[in-house]
Specification:
about 475 residues, alpha/beta, FAD/NAD(P)-binding domain, nine-stranded mixed sheet, HpyO/CreE_NAD-binding
Length: about 475
């Protein structure tokens, strides 16, 4: 892989973001016939990892088992096969203690990052045979504009890049961090959910406050456990829901394929509940019918009206997230253990504000569900686990703000991500479909609803690579 500080004359495709989304697109483009110059702008030294797969702790695992996480849309067993090779070579020896088939293992995120990088490296070798080049610029795109024949990006290091086409493969933007409430000491700031080293600076017996109760909260519990924390943990989220554990249910009939008349979110919800009741009556895990729904989500979401989408987001989304986006067994087991020990409590409450509490603590003001008054809760440290910000108008990063100001993008449906056509071509503020700017992955949340899972991104990468190769 080549790295440079000089701006290229004109690349064929500028990929903005080199996490999993950008790496999968680059790999697919390198495998396409023809010669092309790809330029990936990504501030991390390694491509393919992003924030999600840069974790180094073994306890931070994928949320899906190996059979569900292939980066090759043409081979759903690709990760399982790669993982078997790693185990045969003596990598990840801890897996032997789980005593389950390789396809059912939940690999550490760091190991998955290595897998993604290896597949990209292999694609580079294939591309090199036809003269294709992948160049990595270690920086961040802070602005983008149209120029004759393509686009030009301004970089955080002061340089610029140009390309015929650009792809927004920015991945996920974290929700706004809880504000820092002190000038020194780890206990007066919001701690990163995956920063085990920082968590070792927290009083082991002190109360830790966590905002958000989704999958990031589960990762936070794992981090605290590995850091040696043994004190109380108080979790607060709007609905007080937490992820169910992901199990391996048997196959279930694809009832949505059999009945295409089910179109609205309400119809789907009623039918799904009935399917789950039928499964449980037969002694089958309720997760079996639920798992058949995923393949139909893009169709169901795209054909729904804005009113139906809004109803889903307002009334169904929290329960959908907790049932569908399930926790890996190790993290779920820790959550249950902490609840049994009486150390973990999950509350339905909304965060109002944050302030210091003494020399080495933090205090949050919360409004608990069904209560009008605001309650003050103090702790030794605070962790923000609220997850992802999909509304680009609220993302405090230079590129989203510049794209909005230039009118090159507009918010997607329900302000989820950005607007684009079915093939990923971005729609600007005037409603014009761009012939130069594309997007994939999480930025297309409003287009497809589920646009973050590995399989979703892999399919989009293949389709977009084929489209760009024809241009």
């Amino acid at each position: 892989m080549h790295e440079t500080t000089a701006a290229p004359r004109m690349a064929d495709v500028l990929i903005i973001g080199g996490g999993l989304s950008g790496a999968l697109l680059a790999a697919q483009l390198l495998r396409q016939p023809g010669r092309r110059h790809l330029l990936v702008v990504e501030p991390r030294r390694e491509l393919g990892r992003g924030e999600a797969y840069s974790a180094t702790e073994l306890g931070h695992t994928l949320n899906g088992n190996a059979a569900r996480m292939s980066v090759d849309p043409d081979n759903p067993d690709d990760l399982t096969q790669w993982l078997q090779q790693q185990l045969n070579a003596g990598e990840w020896p801890e897996a032997a203690a789980q005593a389950v088939p390789v396809a059912e293992l939940f690999p550490p995120r760091g190991l998955f990052g290595r897998y993604a990088r290896q597949r990209l490296s292999e694609a580079q070798g294939i591309g090199a045979q036809s003269g294709s080049l992948l160049e990595h610029r270690c920086a961040e795109v802070v602005d983008l504009e149209r120029v004759p024949g393509g686009v030009r990006g301004r970089l955080s290091d002061g340089g610029s890049v140009q390309a015929r086409f650009a792809v927004l493969a920015t991945g996920m933007f974290a929700a706004a961090h809880t504000p820092k409430v002190g000038d020194d000491g780890i206990n007066t700031a919001a701690v990163d959910p995956w920063d085990v080293a920082a968590m070792r600076g927290i009083d082991p017996q002190g109360t830790v406050l966590i905002i958000g109760s989704g999958l990031t909260m589960v990762d936070t519990l794992v981090s605290l456990q590995q850091a040696g924390h043994r004190g109380p943990i108080e979790v607060f989220s709007r609905h007080g829901l937490w992820p169910h554990v992901r199990r391996q249910p048997p196959a279930w009939e694809d009832f949505l394929a059999a009945d295409r008349s089910l179109r609205s979110p309400l119809q789907l919800l009623r039918a799904l509940r009935e399917q789950c009741r039928q499964a449980q009556a037969q002694g089958i895990d309720w997760q079996a019918p639920l798992d058949t729904v995923r393949v139909h989500i893009p169709r169901l979401w795209s054909q729904a009206s804005d009113r139906q989408r809004r109803q889903f987001v307002r009334h169904v989304r929290p329960w959908w997230e907790s049932h569908h986006h399930r926790a890996p067994p190790q993290g779920a087991a820790l959550l249950e253990q902490l609840c049994r020990e009486g150390r973990l409590h999950i509350h339905a409450a909304c965060l109002q504000s944050v302030e210091p509490a003494g020399a080495d603590g933090v205090c949050v003001h919360l409004r608990f569900r069904a209560q009008a008054q605001v309650t003050r809760v103090a702790g030794a440290a605070l962790v923000n686990s609220t997850g992802i910000e999909y509304d680009w108008r609220r993302v405090a990063r230079p590129l989203p703000q510049c794209l909005l100001q230039r009118g090159l993008i507009q918010p997607g449906p329900l302000a989820l991500g950005i607007a684009a056509d079915a093939g990923g071509a971005v729609i600007d503020a005037d409603g014009v479909v761009s012939d130069r700017l594309f997007a994939m992955g999480p930025p297309l949340r409003g287009q497809w609803w589920e646009s973050t899972a590995v399989t979703d991104v892999a399919l989009q990468a293949k389709a977009l690579a084929e489209r760009l190769a024809r241009c």
